[in-house]
Design brief:
Layout lengths: L1 E5 L4 H4 L7 E10 L2 H12 L12 E3 L4 E5 L2 E6 L12 H8 L3 E4 L5 H10 L2 E4 L5 H6 L1 E8 L9 E16 L6 H18 L2
Parallel strand pairs: 1-2, 2-3, 3-6, 6-7
Antiparallel strand pairs: 2-9, 4-5, 7-9, 8-9
Length: 196
């Protein structure tokens, strides 16, 4: 099944997406990596809110290559970064921000799966190595915050049109497609070994 969605995303819409669903996303999203995630969490502990309302948006694990042209930021290239390293902090991030989608590559673990189930969010993957295709989906850089973290780690607010194909690999029920595939592969491997 293929869905074309637009931010802000609602929990009702997100709960319709099952593992394996393909999504094309339009609207406003933002990029964040390790340091940006930590900053949001640290600031929240001090009672501070992020520079934008993240509720209903998608957090894209990416560190874009950017250039300033005529006093406006332009994305030169953007692709997903490995999400696994955000696993220890993603559950708290989902809880604090109200985001409804995390986009990245490489999968995420049980903490994120639980947060997706508890707070009505999904994790969707983009294929690595497709930056030229992904970059075409960025229609505008709306704003940037936290450049003190460095351009790749900054909070980039982007307007996108039909970003995808995104494959839902953790749904709002906590089902994890990667874990399912790995279990099946292990079962198949063990069956083959037993028959040798």
């Amino acid at each position: 099944m293929i869905f074309e969605l637009k931010t802000p995303l609602t929990e009702e819409t997100i709960r319709k997406l099952k593992v394996g669903t393909i999504v094309y996303l339009s609207g406003v999203i933002f990029t964040l990596r390790d340091q940006g995630h930590r900053r949001v969490i640290e600031e929240a502990k001090k009672g501070k809110k992020p520079p934008i309302d993240m509720k209903g948006l998608a957090a894209f694990h990416a560190g874009p290559i950017v250039k300033k042209v005529d006093n406006k930021w332009r994305i030169i290239s953007i692709g997903p970064t490995t999400s696994t390293r955000m696993e220890p902090i993603e559950p708290e991030f989902i809880k604090l921000t109200g985001i409804k989608m995390v986009i990245g590559k490489g999968g995420m673990g049980p903490g994120t799966a639980k947060a997706c189930r508890d707070y009505g969010a999904v994790y969707a993957e983009l294929t690595g190595g497709t930056a030229s295709l992904i970059t075409k989906s960025i229609t505008k850089v709306l704003d940037v915050h936290w450049l003190d973290l460095g351009k790749p780690e900054a909070l980039w607010i982007l307007e996108v049109r039909k970003l995808g194909p995104l494959i839902v690999t953790i749904d709002a029920e906590g089902n994890n497609l990667r874990e399912k595939v790995m279990r099946k592969a292990k079962e198949t491997y063990e069956r083959i070994i037993q028959n040798i």
